[in-house]
Specification:
Oligomer: single chain
Largest sheet: 7 strands, parallel
Structural class: alpha/beta
Radius of gyration: 20 Å
Strand order of the largest sheet: 8-9-7-6-12-13-14
Length: 359
């Protein structure tokens, strides 16, 4: 059997050696080269044609992001980021994910340096997973999309959320590949979109805060990391904080977010099923549930339950743009999906099912 070929990119000699040694412990993977900077990485990808590239994001060595963007534009290849837990490192990681990297791994933080042996199993698993991503999917995920045309000019958007009485709510769940998929969808919605979006992205604490900040920068709707007891407003996207389940409860005419740290569901906290289950209980609202790229089956059961009690629409991201298609496939297997569309058409589909395209 032909081995998977991996190129390791890291500015530190020690990191290049540690990462290479860990990967080489798996007999099905071969490290075919190690690059120390962006220019080396780009040229070695062209010359060696690896199946997967690992990039160690180190700040202030942000040329790692230059390497990532250049690789994705010149010879698209699945890229995994090894992320430091610092604020700058997390920001660089989210930027990298939105610029084409397929996934990331957090390096353990210790005073004497990272002990990478703790992430060996995760690293090897994600390399094998990344190697299976079709080239067409990588390319489609790096196509720039235009915002939805509604036939009317957007009003000046102050990004404060809409206080109008809610009659519809949109929920989105995603995992691996989600940060880029969310950017494609959320940034395509117009400032006039009047309904709230509740989002679960499988991601650790701190990363979700930075993700919300970056999405808000590129979007016309307001994007925030959700807070406990927060009032749900239209024209606002709420991202569940890492390590917290997010639910929505109705109190009179208001809806509020409730966060908790009960046991993980489907191995996840936040869990998409937990959010979907709470949404299906909001009988006075039209509910729209969306399941995008991700590993496992989180969200599929919740989507089925919501559909059975009257959800207005259920949508999954199609295989052609899903970095990992397991979560959408699980929902399709239940037979509870109304629409299957690519990430680039999801914003238009959201506008359609909520009736905003007709306005």
């Amino acid at each position: 059997m032909q081995k998977l070929k991996v190129l390791v990119v890291a500015t530190s000699v020690m990191m290049r050696k540690q990462i290479s040694n860990l990967i080489s412990e798996d007999s099905t993977i071969e490290v075919i080269g190690a690059a120390r900077n962006a220019s080396e990485a780009v040229s070695m990808v062209q010359e060696l044609r690896p199946d997967v590239v690992t990039i160690d994001i180190e700040v202030p060595e942000l040329n790692s992001l230059v390497a990532l963007s250049s690789i994705m534009s010149q010879r698209p290849t699945p890229i995994l980021i090894l992320s430091s837990g610092t604020k700058d490192g997390i920001t660089a990681t989210i930027t990298g994910l939105q610029n084409g990297a397929v996934d990331f791994i957090s390096k353990p933080i210790q005073s004497y340096g990272p002990d990478l042996s703790k992430i060996k199993d995760e690293l090897i698993f994600k390399i094998k997973q990344a190697a299976q991503i079709p080239l067409r999917t990588l390319i489609l995920n790096n196509i720039t999309v235009s915002r939805v045309v509604t036939g009317q000019q957007d009003e000046e958007n102050s990004k404060t959320g809409c206080m109008e009485e809610l009659d519809q709510i949109v929920t989105i769940g995603c995992g691996v590949g989600g940060p880029k998929a969310l950017e494609i969808v959320i940034s395509s919605l117009p400032a006039s979109f009047p309904y709230p979006l509740l989002i679960v992205q499988h991601m650790p604490p701190k990363y979700t805060e930075v993700l919300a900040e970056r999405l808000n920068r590129f979007s016309s709707v307001l994007v925030v990391e959700a807070k406990d007891d927060q009032l749900v407003l239209g024209g606002t996207a709420y991202i569940a904080p890492g390590n917290c389940h997010m639910t929505v409860v109705q109190q009179g005419q208001e809806c509020r977010i409730k966060l908790h740290k009960k046991a993980p569901v489907n191995g996840q906290r936040p869990s998409i099923d937990v959010l979907f289950d709470s949404i299906s209980g909001l009988k006075s609202l039209k509910q729209h549930l969306i399941l995008m790229t991700g590993v496992g089956n989180d969200g599929a059961r919740g989507m089925l339950s919501a559909k059975q009690v009257g959800a207005q629409s259920t949508i999954v991201e199609s295989q052609e743009t899903s970095i990992v298609n397991e979560m959408p496939e699980a929902a399709l297997a239940f037979g509870c999906v109304d629409y299957e569309v690519s990430s680039h058409l999801l914003a238009t589909k959201i506008m359609e099912v909520t009736g905003e395209l007709r306005r």
